[in-house]
Amino acid sequence: MIALCDPDGLRKLTAFDQLSYGDYQQVLSNQKQWDRLNWPLDRKSFTARLDELREIRNELMHFNDKDKAGDSAIPMLRNMIELLREHGG
Asked: How far is residue 37's CA from residue 30's CA, in Å, rounded to a whole number?
């Protein structure tokens, strides 16, 4: 899985805790890796929602002026947390 995120070995990734949010998106966008999860969810919808949450995360962490992290973000985040708890084991 780490090889998907660093195919050339330039980042010298050795552990999952070194992966970025974008790395997780890349792994879950890979059909083979997605199939290993055996989740009854639509991969494309799930990764699209991850991308929306990535934008919200970036807004919060980089203190941008845009308001993507407004009140509508809270239900999206809660929904993802519940989804991961339910299917993540």
From this structure: 11
pLDDT digits 0-9 by tens, 52-62: 998 888 888 87
Q: How far apart are CA 54 and CA 22, in angstroms?
A: 8
∠ CA 48-49-55 to the nearest 5 degrees? Answer: 95
Provide the token pair at 72: 């509508």
**Residue 68 burial (CB < 10 Å; 0-12/13-18/19+)?**
middle
Query: Within 13 A of 79's CA, how many CA atoms are on the CB side?
Result: 10
The structure tokens listed for 47 are: 């990764």
What is this structure's pTM? 0.78
